[in-house]
Design goal:
Layout: H1 10-20, H2 26-33, H3 37-50, H4 68-94, H5 98-107, H6 114-121, H7 125-134, H8 138-156, H9 163-172, H10 179-189, E1 228-238, E2 241-250, E3 255-262, H11 271-281, E4 289-292, H12 296-299, H13 301-309, E5 313-316, H14 326-340, H15 349-364, H16 378-390
Parallel strand pairs: 1-4, 4-5
Antiparallel strand pairs: 1-2, 2-3
Helix pairs in contact: 1-3, 2-3, 4-6, 9-10
Length: 391
């Protein structure tokens, strides 16, 4: 008898097994069915082991009905474990954009189900397969590159630049983008600049020294170096006591040309020390206006004599009006926001001195862009002025 290969459904196999127990010769019965005896034996063994759970078809697990509930629980538990594993491995990529998430899915296709990965990571499987076939669209590539640029600018600014400065820097790099769009991308990336905090006024104006009138009169924009310098003092708390920072700024390019850091508020350690640095870094022009608050460190005889020796014109805030020295106040506001208030713990005086030197000399004077300079660094501003004069 010629036997040929056929496909049998579950009902046929189950009936064949039941009927086989009524036959005396399994070999003859198999021949009647048109199958090999070994096939009938395999069906009988499967039915004996799994009962009505047998013959479920290819790819369907075999399980005895008495164990079905336990089997389903174990299967669901296994699925949950796999989903948790996918989430743990894929979580770091979720905040790096869809492109990076797509790449994670593709690199793990041999380990996990694509549908499971898409479900757990919140990715549309249809869009994923489209990306896999055609690659990322040009617009998405541009957005990804733009986000990388925004992140780079933000981190290079020590996490200080907000929307406006980042927008201007992007425009300088050739990107045409509005501030609102930059703000949206920063929000998606979780980038947020430091919030300003208020700081105390340290001016001691209760003295009998002569105070000068407000000659500067809030004319904070000048056309040449050493036309007007402004100065102020602030305090900084450290782990081992207070430090006092005195700065002298040239209003022309907003550069800190002189500064001093001391543990005491004496004139020698504050204003005179900052002045000595300033005159080393920048030549004093005839008729230079030196503006400050009415504090004793600026009004005392030692410091006024120093200004008079350089034939400077003294200028001071009007009483109780700190806005007369708004540029210095603005510097200290940025300084404390960008350096002091971002510290979680107090530093020692020595460590703080290092941090302040790095901030003023290597960050503020060289790398930080300034809105008043049309979002240029101080060096860029001066280079462009020199270039324009030579043309």
């Amino acid at each position: 008898m010629t036997l040929y290969r056929r496909r049998f459904d579950r009902v046929f196999k189950e009936n064949a097994v039941k009927l086989s127990y009524e036959k005396s010769c399994q070999k003859d019965f198999a021949a009647e069915l048109g199958i090999w005896p070994s096939i009938l034996s395999r069906w009988r063994e499967e039915y004996r082991k799994y009962g009505i759970g047998s013959f479920q078809g290819f790819g369907t697990p075999k399980v005895h009905p008495d164990n079905k509930i336990f089997f389903e629980l174990e299967k669901n538990n296994k699925k949950s474990e796999i989903k948790l594993e996918i989430f743990k491995n894929g979580f770091p990529f979720l905040f790096q954009g869809k492109l990076v998430t797509y790449q994670f899915i593709r690199s793990n296709e041999n380990k996990y189900s694509i549908d499971q990965m898409c479900e757990v990571l919140g990715i549309c499987s249809r869009i994923y397969f489209k990306w896999k076939k055609h690659g990322i669209p040009k617009k998405h590539r541009e957005v990804t590159l733009l986000k990388e640029e925004i992140t780079s600018i933000f981190l290079n600014s020590k996490k200080q630049y907000g929307r406006d400065r980042i927008t201007k820097e992007l425009n300088n790099r050739g990107y045409k983008i509005a501030g609102r769009q930059v703000s949206n991308y920063m929000q998606e990336l979780g980038l947020r600049s430091r919030v300003k905090k208020k700081f105390k006024v340290t001016t001691d104006s209760k003295h009998n020294y002569y105070t000068s009138p407000n000659v500067l009169n809030r004319q904070f924009k000048v056309n040449s170096p050493s036309t007007a310098w402004v100065s102020d003092i602030t305090y900084i708390q450290t782990k081992t006591g207070f430090l006092y920072l005195t700065i002298i700024m040239d209003l022309y390019d907003r550069k800190i040309i002189g500064w001093s850091l001391s543990s005491v508020m004496s004139t020698k350690k504050t204003t005179l020390a900052a002045w000595d640095m300033a005159v080393e870094n920048r030549k004093v022009s005839d008729g230079l206006i030196f503006h400050s608050d009415r504090g004793v460190q600026y009004a005392n005889k030692a410091f006024t004599a120093k200004l008079d020796s350089y034939k400077c014109i003294r200028s001071m805030n009007r009483k109780g009006d700190h806005l007369d020295n708004a540029v210095s106040e603005s510097f200290f506001s940025s300084f404390k926001k960008e350096l002091i208030h971002r510290k979680d713990v107090l530093l020692t005086k020595e460590k703080m001195e290092q941090e302040i030197f790095e901030y003023i000399e290597n960050w503020y004077n060289k790398k930080r862009i300034h809105s008043v300079l049309n979002y240029q660094t101080i060096e860029q501003f001066n280079d462009n002025v020199t270039l324009n004069k030579s043309e």
